[in-house]
Amino acid sequence: MGVACTLSCGQCSYNKNVFLGIGFRYISLQAILEWYEEEEGRKQIIEYINKKEPIYECYDGLYLCQNCNYILNKTYLHLEAGSQSYMNSYSCPRCRDKMPSKPLENETEINRLKCPECKCSNLKVEFYMDWD
Ligand SMILES: [Zn+2]
Ligand SMILES: [Zn+2]
């Protein structure tokens, strides 16, 4: 199940709660469609629901902007059926650069994050609860 954590900077006032992983509303494409907001992704989900044996990956993660270090907490969505596939994508809300196609993979990477505001390496990550 998913976890929530707080990112806080030891040197400036940056402080952010983020959610990572999956919750119970991620168990099927139908369930995801009930809360997924982005237009293009919704269209794709509807299309893939009707395909034969669709495979999907969907979870919340942290995208790190390679240009300005902005940390974006968003849902990763990857759909696949036969030879077709779809992957959602984001651009950085701060500098408009394209975000990496996948969120950070593991805790080690998350613990290595730098503060997106003051760029210091003193960013604390505290995991505080399971969400669902
Ligand atoms: Zn900072
Ligand atoms: Zn950026």
Give a verbal description of the structure.
By secondary structure, the protein is α+β, with helices and mostly antiparallel strands. It has one domain. The strands form 2 sheets. Strands 2-1-6 form a 3-stranded antiparallel beta sheet, with no helix packed on it. It has a 3-stranded antiparallel beta sheet with strand order 3-4-5, with helices on one face. The longest helix is centred in the middle third of the chain and has 11 residues. The structure holds zinc ion (2 copies). One zinc ion binds next to loops.
Q: Give the H and E element order.
A: EEHHEEEHE
Strand order of the largest sheet: 2-1-6
What structural class should be given to the helix and strand makeup?
A: alpha+beta
Structural Rg: 16 Å
Total domains, how many?
A: 1
Bound molecules: zinc ion
In terms of DSSP E residues, the strand content is 35-45%
Work out the helicity level.
10-25%
Number of helices: 3
Distance between the ends: 6 Å
Runs in which pLDDT lies below 50 for 5 or more consecutive residues are none
How many runs of DSSP E, i.e. beta strands? Answer: 6
Most strands sheet = 3 strands, antiparallel
| Shape assignment | globular
Average of pLDDT: 94
